[in-house]
Amino acid sequence: MIVLTGPEIPAAAAFTQRKQIDEETPSRVTHDALAVNHPMWMVGDAAFDMLGWHDELIEEAVVPVAPYNPRNTDDQLDIKYRVEDPIKAHGEDVHLKQSALDKTYEHQTQVERTIGASKDCGLGTPSVRSRVRVESHVFLALCLRLTTAIDNYE
Fold this sequence. Notes:
Layout: E1 2-6, E2 9-13, H1 24-36, E3 41-43, H2 51-59, E4 63-65, H3 84-89, H4 98-105, H5 108-123, H6 131-153
Parallel strand pairs: 3-4
Antiparallel strand pairs: 1-2
Helix pairs in contact: 1-2, 5-6
């Protein structure tokens, strides 16, 4: 999991053993990212359709934009993004255009570009074994990506 503060600039990250992410990791990484920058939006794919995480973001005045995953509930909703449900609950008080959510979700590709740019810094297939060494390799590649972005900016 990578949190970006701008195009291809990692601000916080977490290393998971499998593709499926647990409930605690996004909360912890979001907390780290909010210490660096306070965004208006947090964008993630359908794996980030987590009620607890969304509630935490909304309490921090951050709009979570993740596609609704109907497999997460028995009572399926007619929404595209999870955040639409709490917005509808507020009725007349809060409005958010579907087009604004769609446009914001398009920024999901920045994460993919960051991963691609980080692969250029050595994030590809690590040539080390053991979880600790792979984690170190990944975080060093992300640090190198951040250093490269700072250098390019200056």
